[in-house]
Design a protein that fits this description.
The complex is a heterodimer of chains A (205) and B (252).
Chain A lengths: L1 E4 L7 H9 L4 E4 L2 H6 L2 E4 L5 H11 L1 H10 L4 E4 L1 H4 L2 E4 L5 E2 L4 E7 L12 E6 L1 E2 L14 E6 L1 E4 L5 E6 L3 E8 L2 E4 L7 H12 L5
Parallel strand pairs in A: 1-2, 1-3, 3-4, 4-14, 5-7
Antiparallel strand pairs in A: 5-6, 7-11, 8-10, 9-12, 12-13, 13-14
Chain B lengths: L4 E9 L2 E6 L2 E5 L3 H11 L4 E5 L4 H15 L6 E4 L5 H9 L4 E4 L1 H5 L3 H9 L4 E10 L2 E6 L4 E6 H11 L3 E6 L11 H10 L4 E4 L5 H10 L3 E6 L1 H4 L5 H10 L7
Parallel strand pairs in B: 1-4, 1-12, 4-5, 5-6, 6-7, 7-10, 10-11, 11-12
Antiparallel strand pairs in B: 1-2, 2-3, 7-8, 8-9
Helix pairs in contact in B: 1-2
Classes of the chains: A alpha/beta (205), B alpha/beta (252).
């Protein structure tokens, strides 16, 4: 069973539905026991980093997620949930993340040309950077849906996919059993469903 | 590179899709859920559901249809029509909408865009504007294009974007339903005024109209249409292939 962490950030209707569509048993929960007993955890999130990190910490769920991931349980962070996997973010200040992958979350405005619109919103192509179980069912150049103004800045060895928007933006990361995608697989049509299916299937087996 | 989006718009009344020609003479077309699935399979990049129901029963029915659609279709879904309060935002977001489009509601309550952006994020708030030329200026119309508000459109759009509207749908009443192409002059004026994504609506009759739109105005991010898609006069797969062949970034 896959557990989607409900910590009061964002709308989980589509994410839950997308797992239903691919026939996976999923539960949306804020219960520590359920997270501990789940086979895999998905950490979603939209909104501001500081607010979300604060909610994870105050609820104690951040600690549970980190402990489970450190014990080897497959974890997938989506969008802001991916950014929270890192050590810190500079969105509206400086905030600490879960620190499961070394690196920081920085504004894309620092690296893209000024004439490009922010947020980076819409369908963009995935450039696969290394073999990844998450993209086992995907081909180079397939399109996924992004909405973000910040991205992860980390060592190449943790970056599994990038996307081009005036510069190479981090599209997906992984470190051992910890995975993250900046785009929304639950809004990326068939390609997104393939990625979620790979997380449920290939990952951790 | 990010692709130009093609967005079919489904006007929904009493649980069925209708089309609009100059906002009058409505015709029933199909089931919203089936049509949404069909469009998603054809390569639509996003869908807009526009609730043109006035009654409470119709509204409840719309929410049901929205939920059923979001359980089956996994591309971004924008909902508009009758959005006048934060409660309305809440109602449709809980049923699977990703973005909410406000039009007359923002005109009635000018604080709505700002408050919604603060609560749900800029990316969630879409400003939809019905614009018509009156006395040589672009004028904002309310109530489905029936009422001249007297407001100048570019000023209104700038103000809403400053308040946090993350995207603007420009619907030209002058070209809507006429099928002779998008209103390039009006769109150029909006693109020049704001830095957020601009969606062109009103006037698409042929594939070439979309090509002309994106070629002439590279700052336009998406093209929206209804009946030309519903009646298969333009097929989305074919349109996107043609866009790609013309050097316009498209998701194939």
């Amino acid at each position: 069973m896959v557990a989607i962490v409900d910590y009061g950030v964002g709308n989980l209707f589509s994410l839950r539905s997308s797992f239903g569509k691919i026939g996976e048993e999923v539960t949306v929960t804020s219960d520590e026991t359920v997270l501990r007993s789940a086979e895999k955890i998905v950490l979603p999130g939209v909104g501001a980093f500081g607010d979300a990190a604060d909610k994870l910490e105050k609820s104690g769920l951040g600690r549970v997620i980190a402990e489970e991931a450190e014990a080897g349980k497959p974890l997938l962070g989506i969008c802001l949930g991916m950014q929270l996997l890192f050590e810190k973010s500079y969105e509206y200040g400086e905030y600490k993340g879960l620190g499961l992958i070394p690196g920081e979350v920085c504004a894309i405005s620092e690296i893209i040309p000024a004439e490009l619109k922010i947020p980076h919103m819409g369908w963009n192509a995935l450039n696969l950077r290394k073999p990844s179980l998450l993209f086992k069912r995907c081909r180079e150049g397939e399109f996924v849906y992004f909405v973000h103004s910040y991205h992860a800045v980390t060592e190449d060895k943790y970056i599994s996919a990038t996307t081009e928007y005036g510069a190479d933006l981090t599209a997906a990361v992984e470190s051992g059993n910890v995975y993250g995608c900046q785009f929304h697989p639950e809004k990326s049509g068939e390609v997104g469903l393939k990625i979620l299916k790979a997380f449920c299937g290939e990952v951790g087996t | 590179m990010i692709t130009k989006r093609i967005i079919p718009c489904l006007d929904v009344k009493d649980g069925r899709v209708v089309k609009g020609i100059n906002f009058k003479a409505l015709n029933d077309v199909a089931s919203p859920v089936r049509l949404a699935e069909y469009y998603s399979d054809c390569g639509a990049d996003e869908l807009v559901f526009y609730d043109i129901t006035a009654s409470a029963e119709g509204r409840a029915l719309f929410t049901e249809i929205l939920r059923e659609t979001a359980e089956n279709v996994f591309i971004p879904l924008t909902v508009g029509g009758g959005i006048g309060s934060l409660e309305d935002f809440d109602r449709v977001l809980k049923c699977g909408a990703d973005k909410v489009s406000v039009n007359s509601g923002a005109i009635r309550d000018p604080s709505l865009v700002g408050e919604a952006a603060k609560r749900y994020g800029d990316q969630c708030v879409v400003l939809s504007v019905d614009i018509k030329r009156v006395d040589g200026e672009f004028r904002v119309f309310a109530k489905g294009g029936r009422e001249d508000t007297g407001m100048e459109a570019i000023t209104w759009i700038r103000r809403c974007v400053d308040d946090g509207a993350g995207e603007v749908v420009v619907n030209s009443i002058d070209t809507d339903g006429v099928r002779t192409g998008f209103d390039l002059e009006m769109l150029a004026a909006v693109c020049q005024a704001v830095q957020v994504p601009v969606i062109a609506s009103g006037g698409a009759g042929r594939e070439e109209d979309f090509i002309t739109l994106f070629k002439t105005l590279p700052k336009v991010d998406a093209g929206l249409a209804a009946s030309v898609f519903h009646f298969a006069e333009i097929r989305i797969e074919e349109l996107k292939k043609k866009m790609a062949a013309n050097g316009i970034p498209a998701r194939l």
